[in-house]
Specification:
The protein is mostly helical and about 70 residues long.
């Protein structure tokens, strides 16, 4: 009888551990999805900022090419 109770307890422990691991996996999956979404947003923001900076540099006389004086 003790062996049977021990087996039942072991099975309960294993089931509880499996459920906990499944929950952890689910949480990690959601976190990965959130990080991927944030990464895509940041890439988009970076692209927009790069274009903005390039446009500013193109329209500013400070960044325009100058011809070197001839000797």
């Amino acid at each position: 009888r003790v062996s049977r109770m021990s087996d039942d307890k072991s099975k309960e422990d294993l089931v509880a551990e499996v459920i906990e691991l499944q929950n952890t996996l689910d949480e990690l999956t959601h976190r990965i999805d959130a990080v991927k979404e944030e990464n895509m947003k940041l890439k988009s923001d970076n692209h927009i900022l790069t274009q903005y900076i390039e446009n500013l540099m193109a329209s500013s006389s400070v960044f325009k090419k100058t011809t070197s004086p001839s000797k």
